[in-house]
Amino acid sequence: MDIEAGKDIPSRDPAELDDDGRVKRTGNVFIATTHIVTVVVGAGVLALAWAMAQLGWIAGIAVMVLFACISVYTYNLIADCYRYPDPVSGKRNYTYMQAVDAYLGGKMHVFCGSVLYGKLAGVTVGYTITSSISLVAIKKAICFHKKGHAAYCKFSNNPYMIGFGIFQILLSQIPNFHKLTWLSTIAAATSFGYAFIGSGLSLAVVVSGKGEATSIFGNKVGPDLSEADKVWKVFSALGNIALACSFATVIYDIMDTLKSYPPENKQMKKANVLGITAMTILFLLCGGLGYAAFGHDTPGNILTGFGFYEPFWLVALGNVFIVIHMVGAYQVMAQPLFRVIEMGANMAWPRSDFINKGYPIKMGSLTFNINLFRLIWRSMYVVVATVIAMAMPFFNEFLALLGAIGFWPLIVFFPVQMHIAQKQVKRLSLKWCCLQILSFSCFLVTVSAAVGSIRGISKNIKKYKLFMYKQ
Fold first, then answer.
1. Which GO terms describe its biological process (predicted)?
2. Least packed by Cβ within 10 Å: which of 198, 356, 402, 408?
3. 345's torsion region: left (phi>0), alpha (psi -120 to 50) or beta?
């Protein structure tokens, strides 16, 4: 329960409390499903058409469906580990890391934290890249509309990244950002807005008969595409799809909203099936329609790659939606990282005024509580993330790297190992071997996607001068 300073909290009727002493949760399968869909519908959706172009119709559809099936199975394993040791009556695990610690112990807990917070940090860099590309795309849409589609309309991303970073420094100083639910709600709504705008514009191209040629095997090897480049781009495409499927970082946050009966794991399993099914249908629509519209020339992001020029206002509006979504999503991802560092500093130096003391500052009728450590640490973090984004502003490759980092450890490895520990699956039994084969296969996918994306980033860095990239 939240406790407000200086106020007495009246005692509650035990009937109003859950088994852990917190106010009864009221969430249900429908609400959990909407949370899942809201989380997975992000900027990564706009890269799925490019991923489909690399893989082709057969492999593209097969990979999306296969990843969906794996996700349903492993997220159901995660759902069973919400309570420890019994999945129905055991003690609640409020976070993914807490569940890993309960089932697998301290070393795995540290490994999980490293992957989890590393991915959160990477996502903030990715959101900075995405927002700047969309801001430039808005300017380009206006430029093309005024000067014609053949006009030179290339602009540096750097000023927009710097502006986005300054705005995030201001937002990062809000200590209890989770209370600003209005921003999260707007961000979620805009994510659907730009996904449907991108799909709708692609559908309009296909219906008008102006769609480009496609292939069941994806982009063909030829003068403009070597066999090696084809393989590396396929690996990056796997990373793009893997990123779009990920909501492991928030699954326990979703589960912690569910009412206690029926058991949370049973409700979450239904929500997983419904949410991932809806997610897969949306992915197939976005990826398939985008590929059908642009064929072998499918851009990395269907709203910023300018396969669409008109109606310019709709293209610009889609990119405005992306920027709004990125503003809110950045803080959703950064706040857990801020919090864990500040909690660690507080535990290490509990008597330090620099770390723990707040200084009230009045601005008219508003009072802000400024903490020097929070001000400096969070500002430095945003600056570093912005500089990294300016040095590597490559949308598809960076998204593929983020997808690779999180796919195997968070979606497959930890769920499989927790399930083995929970059910005490015997080593070398048939089930144990099948689970390890699944884990190892997904590990190979993660390694391939990571290597492909890193190669793409290094190749682009050699092609473009650092901090001089223009879109």
1. amino acid transmembrane transport; auxin-activated signaling pathway
2. 356
3. alpha
